[in-house]
Design brief:
about 20% strand; two-stranded antiparallel ribbon; 2 strands; Ribbon-helix-helix fold; alpha+beta; globular; 3 helices
Length: about 80
Amino acid sequence: MSGRPVKRSLTLKGHRTSVSLEDEFWQAFRDIAKSKDIAINALAAEIDVDRDPEIGLASAIRVFILNWYRDTSSS
């Protein structure tokens, strides 16, 4: 585990944006998108629409991932 964020590009509403997440978060993000049977860009767009404009997209993605695993582990 490196702990260093990795910057990758996502497409939201037809525009490219860069998001920096640690490798473990990128993997979890891809796993969640796969389990929902949607593209990672579609999942990012869902998170983007629901997030508070004061919260950065990377932070919103991390919190989404945390909540996803909390919800699935309590089921």
